[in-house]
Specification:
CATH superfamily of the largest domain: Response regulator
Number of strands: 15
Oligomer: single chain
Number of helices: 8
Radius of gyration: 19 Å
Distance between the termini: 44 Å
CATH class of the largest domain: Alpha Beta
Largest sheet: 5 strands, parallel
Length: 248
């Protein structure tokens, strides 16, 4: 029986190891490698041509979506992609509507079994390049996200957000035209629901919308956002400056 060559891609070692352990329960799955970044994964895919790739969405430097874009440019036998992600309502809607399969972290073996059975019956199979184009189209759509307030909730288009700043268990969200809203969600939750295509966490307490990024001053460790005539200066560490540079 030919085994299904499988690649695990995740920047978190615990997540890689957990998924690898679960996959050992399936005799027809052969894990050929575990990659900690999109760059390493791309090398494995072009060299070994796996059948199936379990791909984390949120990774530093290059996201899972960026890896798909890189694969799209190559004339190779494309693998089937299963996204593995923590709950991210924006990304999951885009993934679901683009015909890709996904698993939520922490991965449940029952759901993993369903995914593998779907792969075996080829129900995941469809045109790879078309799926990527559809995914990016869905990610770029102007979808509103629900944010909790003290008295209810607000529905906002993420493109309206300039940056977010932690305030204890609350988050101050600065919108276009110098508007400010305070939400009862902590900043970690906001990071998980905001689209990773243009939101970047510059520190433990702040997330910026790169759409408004104007410049970065390395020496002063400052990033400057521009909202119309309003200029906003925020602290950013040297390591985050490097990550932000690679983000583009």
């Amino acid at each position: 029986m030919r085994k299904i060559k499988t690649l695990i891609v995740d920047d978190e070692s615990n997540s890689r190891d957990l998924l690898h352990t679960l996959l050992k329960n399936f005799e027809d799955i052969e894990v050929i490698a575990k990659a900690e970044s999109a760059e390493i994964a791309l090398n494995w895919i072009t060299k070994s041509l796996p059948d199936l790739v379990f791909l984390d969405v949120q990774m530093p430097n290059k996201s899972g979506f960026d890896l798909l874009e890189d694969l799209k440019k190559l004339k190779i036998t494309y693998p089937e992609i299963v996204f593995v992600t923590a709950y991210d309502q924006f990304a999951l809607k885009a993934i679901k509507s683009s015909a890709f399969d996904f698993l939520l972290k922490p991965v449940d073996i029952t759901e993993l079994d369903k995914t593998i059975q779907k792969f075996k019956t080829k129900s995941l199979k469809s045109d790879f390049v078309k799926k990527i184009d559809m995914l990016y189209e869905n990610l770029s759509q102007n979808k509103k996200i629900k944010f909790n307030t003290r008295h209810g909730f607000m529905a906002l288009n993420p493109n309206e957000i300039v940056y977010c700043s932690a305030d204890g268990s609350y988050t101050q969200v600065y919108l276009e035209n110098s508007k400010l809203e305070i939400f009862t969600n902590h900043i970690g939750y906001l990071e998980s629901i905001l689209p990773i295509t243009n939101f970047f966490r510059i520190s433990r307490s702040q997330i910026i919308n790169t759409k408004f990024l104007f410049s970065v001053i390395r020496k002063e460790k400052i990033c400057i956002l521009k909202d119309g005539e309003n200029e906003i200066k925020l602290y950013i560490s040297s390591s985050k400056i490097k990550e932000l540079e690679e983000f583009f």
